[in-house]
Design brief:
CATH architecture: Alpha-Beta Complex
Number of strands: 8
Distance between the termini: 75 Å
Strand order of the largest sheet: 3-2-1-4-7-6-8-5
Largest sheet: 8 strands, mixed
Radius of gyration: 19 Å
Length: 238
């Protein structure tokens, strides 16, 4: 009787899909993605979505990603393209200039055991002494309002991402709007564990100038101003 061949075991689904978006990040993307290698070793999937970089970001990122996708620019669009290709039940949306803590996977799994979505506290890295205070205020505001920003590394179940229809594909405030939608399903897990984001945009244009700009844009968004108009003003100022 011929030996019976054992069929190969089905591939194990990743425990978390990390979706990193980038645009012209060649100077730093290799180091940023290399820092995520321990999470890949723990069973996480790393999906990098490029928005049409004109430098060699794609070449730098390709060896360090499980999937590398190239699409048109736009944070919301890039995040949704990555989520559509994700294989895990849990999704983490990460900006290329944000660094996760060592225990990020444990923190996310604990958060999603009780909530359908959540975010980290954020610390802004830079020279200005005001950046630590700004980070504290962002975290406090987020706890009081239940609204998260992209710099806080938003995470959610794949099912909740589908339930709200993904990120609204608008040119600005997509993180604010998806937070509003997710809040209707349930309160966020507000993790005290910190991610670290690059403070270059704050320092390049001036800390107080950037604060005033963001407050003004947020206020007008809450008042119903078209996100496309706000995005044009944001680009002009920057």
């Amino acid at each position: 009787m011929p030996p019976v061949e054992t069929p190969p075991a089905p591939p194990t689904a990743p425990c978390l899909s990390i979706i990193v978006i980038m645009l012209n990040e060649a100077s730093s993307i290799h180091a940023r993605l290399a820092a995520l290698a321990p999470l890949r070793d723990q069973g996480c999937e790393l999906i990098v979505v490029d928005g049409g970089s004109r430098d060699d970001s794609v070449e730098q990122a390709l060896p360090l990603a499980d999937q590398l996708l190239v699409t048109s620019a736009g944070r919301a669009h890039q995040l949704n393209v990555g989520a559509m290709q994700a294989n895990a039940d849990y999704l983490l949306f990460l900006h290329a200039d944000t660094q996760l803590p060592d225990d990020a996977l444990i923190a996310i799994e604990r958060g999603l055991s009780r909530h359908g979505w959540g975010r980290f506290d954020v610390r802004i890295d830079g020279c200005s002494r005001w950046l630590s205070l700004i980070g504290m205020m962002i975290n406090l505001r987020s706890r009081l309002t239940g609204i998260a920003t992209g710099d806080q590394a938003i995470f959610m179940t794949h099912d909740w991402w589908k339930e709200v229809g993904g990120f609204p594909e608008q040119p600005l405030m997509e993180d604010i709007e998806i937070s509003r939608c997710l809040k209707r399903l349930g309160a966020p897990a507000c993790l005290s564990v910190q991610v670290v984001t690059d403070g270059r945009r704050w320092e390049q244009h001036g800390v107080f100038t950037t604060i005033w700009l963001m407050w003004r844009l947020r206020w007008r968004y809450w008042r119903g101003t078209d996100p496309a108009q706000l995005a044009r003003e944001y680009r002009d100022v920057r």
